[in-house]
Structure formats: structure tokens, C-alpha cells
Write a structure and sequence with these properties.
213 residues, alpha+beta, Beta Polymerase, domain 2, 5 helices, 11 strands, 35% helix, globular
């Protein structure tokens, strides 16, 4: 066993804490600006999107973004995916970080863009008669990405005004958050990690391609 492998359990937690501290500081400083930039890009192209996961949770529960967060989460319908989304975000100064594509993109995808140190994750949802589903990509014990399919019964929307922007959010907002975080979603939980902890989700086996840009 190498010295590095022996010391890894001691220095990795410190590195992870430092990384989180840096990302959170950037998020606190730049998140509203980055949100506006992403909103402008998607609205300009007529892309229907909505705040998702922790971003929706903060806006609905607290009226603001969650203070200990590090990224922004948006939902988009998979049927609305097109190349204009990427080009519009790039025009606003974003850089594409990575993407996950399931079955060539026909079944699902997720994309991540970054601006001023703040990542915007785009989760692509498939709408059905009784709800909608999207995908998360946690890492298993072999350090490989797997697919977790997440379901919510909320699939209709309403508009609100927040930070000077007109936003779409799930019409049944409480139900949307309960589906992922549980009945106690109004109680803050700092160490929640949605890819692993999300309720109403299951591991599925499909062909996945992960690209880092």
C-alpha cells in the first residue's frame, strides 16, 4: 500500500471542505447574476424552463436561494431540447462543463454550464399523463456513474415573479418538493445529496455517455 493511499482518508475530507467553501463563496456572490443570465438566454430562445430541486426548494420555502448551496438547478422538457439552448448560454458567457446522455439522448440527458464559478445544471424531464421524470447520475462504489430515474406527479405549471423575473414553477409546488424531499421538506437539511437521497427514484440500466468539456 502506497503512502498516498494511506494518507487519502486524512487529506481528502479537508480538500472536499475547501472545495465546498470556495464554491459556496462564489455561489453566494454570483448566483443571482448567473440566474439572470441563464434566464435571459433561455427566455430569448423561447425555451420553457423552471427552477428545480434545491433552487425551487429555496425559492418556494425561503423566498431566496439556499445559502449553503453551490449550484443552480433548472428543469426543461426533453422534447424541447435543441442546439439553441447551448448556443444561447454560450452567447451569455457560459462555458459547457459536461453532459450525460442516455440512449443517444432519446431517453434522457443532463447538461451543466458554468459562469463566474457558478454551475447551472439542466435536467431534462419527460412529461407523461400522470407526471414527469428525469435522471440523476450518482457515482457507485466503483467510481462509475449510474442512472437514477426520478419521478414526480407534478407536471403542470404556473408563473410567479421573483427577483424581477417571471418564472415558471410547478403548479403543485408542495407536491413537487414532497415527491423528492419528503413531507418534512420545509425543515432544512444541510447534508442532503439529491443524486443519492432523492425519494421516488430508482436505479435503471440503460446505455449512458458522460462527456466532460
Amino acid at each position: 500500500m502506497s503512502i498516498k493511499s494511506i494518507l487519502r482518508p486524512y487529506y481528502l475530507p479537508t480538500l472536499h471542505k475547501l472545495k465546498y467553501w470556495i464554491e459556496n463563496k462564489r455561489f453566494t456572490k454570483n448566483s443571482i447574476h448567473v440566474f439572470n443570465k441563464a434566464h435571459n438566454a433561455l427566455a430569448r430562445e423561447g425555451i420553457f424552463y423552471w427552477p428545480e430541486f434545491g433552487t425551487l426548494l429555496g425559492i418556494h420555502r425561503d423566498g431566496k436561494l439556499i445559502g449553503h448551496d453551490t449550484d443552480l438547478d433548472f428543469g426543461i422538457f426533453l422534447s424541447d431540447f435543441n442546439e439553441r439552448i447551448e448556443s444561447a448560454l454560450l452567447e451569455e458567457g457560459f462555458t459547457k462543463e459536461r453532459e450525460f446522455v442516455i440512449e443517444g439522448g432519446a431517453y434522457g440527458r443532463e447538461e451543466s454550464y458554468i459562469l463566474k464559478g457558478v454551475t447551472v445544471d439542466l435536467f431534462y424531464f419527460t412529461k407523461t399523463d400522470s407526471g414527469m421524470y428525469a435522471h440523476l447520475f450518482p457515482i457507485n462504489e466503483n467510481r462509475e456513474h449510474i442512472i437514477r430515474e426520478l419521478w414526480t406527479s407534478a407536471n403542470e405549471f404556473k408563473q410567479i415573479e421573483w427577483e424581477g423575473m417571471k418564472l415558471n414553477i410547478p403548479k403543485e409546488t408542495d407536491q413537487r418538493l414532497i415527491d423528492t424531499y419528503g413531507e418534512d421538506y420545509r425543515i432544512p437539511v444541510k447534508d442532503w445529496y439529491t443524486p443519492d437521497d432523492a425519494l421516488n427514484s430508482k436505479i435503471i440500466i440503460k446505455k449512458i455517455k458522460h462527456t466532460i468539456f
